[in-house]
Amino acid sequence: MICRSVCRAWVVTAVLGSGVTALATAAGPAQAADAAAPIVYSIYAHQPDAPFNELASRLLSGAAQHAHLLPMETIDIAAPPAPAKQAVEAIALAKDRVRKLRFDEAVHPLNEAADTVVATGGAGVSTDLLSDLYLYRGMTIARADWKPERSVDQATQARAYADYVRAVILTPTRALNPRETPPQVMDDWARALAEVHGRAHGVLTVRGPADATVAFDGGAALSIGGGGAIFKDVVYGEHLVHVEQVGYAPWGAVVALDRPAQEVAVPSRPSLVIDDQVAGAHARRMGARYALVGEVQLGAPSLQLEIRLIDATGIKHDAAVVPLPVEAGTVDATVLRLCEEARHIDHLGLGPSSGNDAPAGGAAAASTAINEPLAPPRPGAPVLVAPLPAASPRLADDPAGWARHHWPLVIAVGGVLTTALVLSIAVAANR
User: What is the DSSP letter of 395?
Assistant: First the structure.
């Protein structure tokens, strides 16, 4: 009899225990699934020719392995492609059409090439080809055929002559072939040569970052250095300046020299980095909630490795910098701290609810963000902050609310009390 009662008690206890376990397990299925999913995905932004690039990549990859993250992804960061190829092709096409006196067909490619040259400071276009651009555009404006009389009015002739002067400034010793050039162009070219040779000369200094290079009027690039790039014996008039620096967007401009000594200050340009939205899109693609992005900072007084923590929606939460070169342990500690911060943000409910959450605009927007060019972050972009989770009510003030907030604990305690009660009844009945 005693044996049967004890057995029944044990069966009841096992059933209740199973139920409590099932309820406790069901209390947080989302949390269990979240714990199994990858939290942080590491990305390294590789900038060609950047100092300590390989060292920084190796240190971040090792830190990601030590933190048990997914294998690190490397994304190549390159300057936006200069449209030099299109400009060169447009000039070659227009020259052929002008030689065949097809002026109407040459206007559009010449104007497009001229706009590109002005915007980029003549990036990737040689001095001789720049001279051709203005020479043939002047011929197109003047509709310079082989007739003895001119085909346009004086105002239009003046516009064409201004382009001839630009061409002469670029190549002041250039001589045209009279067998290939209409007589009116030969006359205007001779007048432009005389005007330019009679102008004064000055010195143009380009100042900017010491590691930047500058190309002047399509010539070879020179280092700016600490004292600036100095160009002497420059004729008064319009000149083209193109500046490049590793890790930064290129810059170009037209500079009008009109004094004996003139300086040009290179303006600040956006650094070439992975946009936070793009980094978040890469994290979503891998099913992670956060991206850990490492990049070599080139504009700081000393070289540094910056590591940014960005969630899957593209919101930046934190960043840390370590000097280069640096020991591996420093990068390991930084990565571990940021990973722990990501888990803390997740625990507080301030991060994305799932690594696969798409940003506003749906899946199409997420796909576009991955494939769009790497561009600098938009200035003044709004930052979205998730609301803080509601605080737990106090037991004395709201017993029912406290029980709802802690219902897994209440169920577990209830199961234990129920088990104790059943056992007590079984023992009493046996006695």
Answer: T
